[in-house]
Fold:
Amino acid sequence: MTVLLEAVNVVKRYDGAGTNAVNGISLQVEEGEFYSFLGPSGCGKTTLLRIFAGFETLTTGSVLIGGKVMNDLPAYRRPVNMVFQSYALFPHLSVFENVAFGLRHGAGRQIAGLDIAAEVDKALDTVRLKALKNRMPSQLSGGQQQRVALARALAVRPLVLLLDEPLSALDVQIREEMQEELSRLKRELNMTFVMVTHDQSEALALSSRVAVFNAGNLEQVGSARQVYEEPSTPFVASFIGNSNLLEGKLKEVGGALSKVELPSGEIIEVLNPASLGAGVPVKLVFKPETVQLAESSKFSPASLSEGSNRLAVKVRNISYQGSFTDLIFTTTGGAELKASLPSHDLPPLSLGDATAVFLPPQSLRLLAAAGSGEP
Ligand code: ATP
Structure:
């Protein structure tokens, strides 16, 4: 695979800032990928995207596009184009003229004999808006305006399309339609997309790979499935999939299952944690949808010790969501435990009720607690 976009040890410190907005990030985006920068507000993802686009300078390190160092090249000479959250259409120009603008004044202007009308039509066709080409932006819905912005960016045929939270200004239903639109464009054009988002479901739905950012650093890069199902750090686990994180100590390692002891003394058995040794402080990671109520649990493998993986809890919050009900429990040790249970077989529960949950061993992951010196 060809690497199209590369960041090498990129550091960005804004003037007067006490910390680095981007703190030495290296990553590679391959040709044809839909690559997302995902993370909470302020983690540096937009800054890095803007550095690729040439709208922001970097402090140290380099960015390469198509194998060439871009550090000192102005934005308009880079083979990329950017779509913004706010569409940034010219309000006084028609849809047609908005899309033509980049071809007349941007990278496209060097192409001699370019049939601008045909190129605009083609770009508007790609986003299925040809019929509206004479309208003004104010006569379009938010989703349509964003499709014009996409057409304008695509018309100049960039090597890479950079998307800065392109869907976040749209309401939920239009956002879903636009997600499909982006997926379709990706499939049909086989272009390389890099998208900044703080919305994990958007990143997971669209991306071939996701880079999870935290406070200027890269926490994990992987496929959507990997970052969701195999988070490599406690931060990724809690940010993606809303995982539970319970602190404990690895008490016994060996056999098919190892034992983790919680501060309450309760024992949780987990599939063998390859790289961790007995005595290590750990975090037990599991998704809310894998939690079961002990009384209705159908899982009791012969290998599980009597009473293992059952935790006494109290109901702290109940939130009916339709087919699922989200519950927040408090454990004996005072930790919060989130569960998402099918509403149809949920026994009647009230706030403050004491009950017990069951954590199936195969749904549990172990991460070394920070500072334990283990991976
Ligand atoms: P958001 O989704 O809120 O935009 P982000 O992850 O994209 O968040 P950045 O916008 O890259 O984060 O910001 C990273 C850090 O740099 C933040 O602490 C932010 O306050 C700071 N920052 C961003 N732009 C500037 C600027 N022009 N001058 C000074 N500090 C800035």
User: Anything to note?
Assistant: The first strand starts at residue 3 and ends at 12.
